[in-house]
Specification:
By secondary structure, this protein is an all-alpha fold. It contains 16 helices and no strands. Helix content is 77%, strand content 0%.
């Protein structure tokens, strides 16, 4: 493999790094467009199929359970067979399981069927989680880029927001003009197109897969590496322990906003409004992605951004839970999206600068597993709360749960990891505590 042609300085991208970034942004754009076709109408789709609020959010919980179940095995694929292979398998699996969702909607399938297919959807996404981000970081470092990751990850967040804006609005409008099933078919078509794009453009660089002829032994080794470089690494461990609360709440709130806003709007058939809600979150992602490196520059430590974001998200959800005005709710929704989107690239950069390249996809997948585990419990819990007390009360409950992530972020901050202050790769590979002054 040829060495990189030029070394980057600071946050400047050289020619090779720019090419890597373009491929990353292309994959992010296509995948997010595909996924977001249904994001604005997913809850309405499940309710239209005859599921109750509890069953609908339980189906979502089975999706996150699938992510928990398959994160480690698919981590073996990403680190043992290559991040490109993992991505290609993800597109095929997600396309097939999405089509099964469409068939269940047509036949008003029993809940257990929804549960099984939801687990398969989770499997599809686990092929992506960790793999794409690990591919990006390793390829950038191989190209000679030495700058902070926030700027590139922030651009990815912005592209994700643009894609979500396009996909969610289109999904809502198309559903209202046709039916709730058509956006699911569009997702299948785009995913198959992304398979072809990734096959031609995505190649593993800066990383050599280590294949194993013993899958169970490889899975055990991956799990061990995840624990060793994740949960046994104190600053990483506390960030991971915060994930179930923040990620679990984020998943619930995003999907609960669809019926909640329709209630406020007063028209349960206005599917385009549900799409608008997702589009506002998408616009917030664009702004949040742009703000991420700027927010990082305002604070000495990355954890300051994370802690402020967790506290701010809690307050916004509490206020959102008591408002009865549709337009005020939209403003709060946009603000909630901006806060979360500005925090995400900073969190990603913080974690990536504390883990080794060989286990990067594995640890990132394990981090995703931790977030998904929160969704397994929190989604049906808050869904039941919505059944008993209404969506506003469930959103307020979600705000309280999100606040529980802050003590763990404070604990991570106290470890004094070099990555908390650095805007370049951590020069301390073992992440020993350092002076924080």
């Amino acid at each position: 493999m040829a060495p990189p042609r030029a070394r980057g300085t600071g946050d400047t991208l050289n020619q090779d790094a720019r090419k890597i970034q373009r491929v990353y942004l292309t994959l992010t754009l296509g995948n997010t467009v595909a996924a977001s076709f249904i994001w604005g109408i997913n809850t309405l789709f499940l309710l239209d199929a005859g599921l109750s609020n509890l069953e609908a959010f339980a189906a979502n919980a089975f999706f996150t359970a699938g992510m928990v179940l398959f994160e480690i095995p698919t981590g073996v694929v990403a680190d043992g067979w290559g991040r490109r292979t993992s991505f290609l398998l993800g597109t095929v699996t997600l396309a097939a399981s999405t089509y099964l969702y469409y068939l269940l909607w047509q036949i008003s399938g029993a809940f257990w069927m929804w549960a099984v297919v939801s687990v398969l959807l989770g499997l599809g996404f686990t092929f992506f989680s960790g793999a794409v981000e690990a591919w990006l970081v390793d390829a950038l470092r191989f190209s000679g880029y030495e700058g902070g990751l926030e700027s590139v990850l922030g651009r990815g967040q912005m592209v994700q927001g643009v894609a979500m804006l396009l996909g969610s609005v289109a999904g809502g409008v198309i559903a209202q003009a046709t039916n709730l099933g058509v956006p699911f078919l569009l997702r299948v078509a785009v995913l198959l197109a992304m398979f072809a794009v990734a096959f031609g453009l995505m190649h593993d660089v800066g990383f050599s897969p280590e294949r194993s002829t013993h899958p169970l032994r490889a899975t055990r080794a991956v799990l061990t590496a995840s624990i060793e470089n994740g949960l046994k690494n104190p600053p990483v461990r506390f960030v991971m322990l915060a994930a179930p609360f923040s990620a679990g709440v984020g998943i619930y709130v995003f999907y609960a906003l669809q019926p909640y806003l329709l209630d406020l709007f007063g028209d349960p058939q206005a599917y385009s409004i549900a799409g608008l809600a997702a589009a506002i979150v998408a616009g917030s992602q664009i702004l949040g992605g742009w703000l991420a490196p700027h927010a990082r520059s305002l604070f000495h430590k990355r954890t300051s951004v994370l802690i402020l974001g967790g506290t701010g998200g809690c307050v916004i959800l509490l206020v959102l839970g008591i408002t009865h005005n549709f337009w005020i709710a939209l403003v709060l929704l946009a603000l909630w999206g901006v806060v979360g989107s500005a925090v995400t690239p900073v969190r990603q950069a913080y974690v990536n600068d504390m883990i080794p390249s060989k286990q990067r996809a594995t640890v990132l997948s394990f981090d995703s597993l931790m977030g998904s585990s929160g969704g397994v419990v929190i989604q049906p819990l808050l869904g039941r709360g919505a059944d008993l007390y209404g969506y506003p009360a469930s959103l307020a409950m979600a705000g309280v749960i999100e606040l529980l992530s802050v003590p763990f972020l404070l604990a991570s901050r106290k470890q004094g990891a070099a990555a908390d202050r650095s805007s370049t790769p951590d020069s301390n590979p073992n992440n020993e505590s350092a002076d924080t002054t």
